Amino acid sequence: MNINGDDVKAWKDKVPKKADFEELTRKAAEYDKLQEADLTDAEKIQKALQDAESAKTDYAKKSNRLDAEKILVAAGLTEEDYKDLIDGIISDDADKTKSMATGLATMVTKQKEAAIQKTKEELMDGTPAPSGGSGGAEEKSEDVKFAEEVAGTFSASEEASKSVFEIY
To answer: Would the CA dihedral through 138, 144, 146, 148 be positive or negative?
Structure first.
């Protein structure tokens, strides 16, 4: 037990305390402010331009994400279906993102239709063909066999057997 306790104590000593973390975060923010104060006007402008470009890229990606989600939802997918894939097809290029989303939606739709068709075919293969109505002489139905049997027992005259078939 002491060995385990020593391991836990050593680990706890390595993990920074919340107060230490907050102090480091505060100092980092102060350091960033001091660095910005030391920047020249040209460097401040350059930093502002970089921040604006970063914001523009983020906005483009978010906008493209919405477009891609719209395409995927229109194809019948739910968020659960595409949540793991969506980040891979999003880029800051709108046309590329739409193309990738459309391709994914088309592929999923084709697979869904193929699965439905295959299921229908499997169900049809398991369904027996309906009896009668074919007019063929392959196999006589039970009622025809019975009528012939009845006609055979009353075959005293040709007319009696014809009448059974005429009634039937």
So the answer is: negative
Determine if the pTM surpasses 0.85: no
Percent share of the chain, pLDDT over 90? 20
Closest to 100 measured CA to CA, from 114, 82, 88? 88
CA dist 111 and 106 (Å) reads 9
Cα 96 to Cα 102: distance, rounded to the nearest angstrom = 10
Q: 130-164 burial, b if ≥16 CB within 10 A, otherwise e?
A: eeeeeeeeeeeeeeeeebeeebeeeeeeeeebeeb
pLDDT band per the 50, 70, 90 thresholds, residue 96: very high
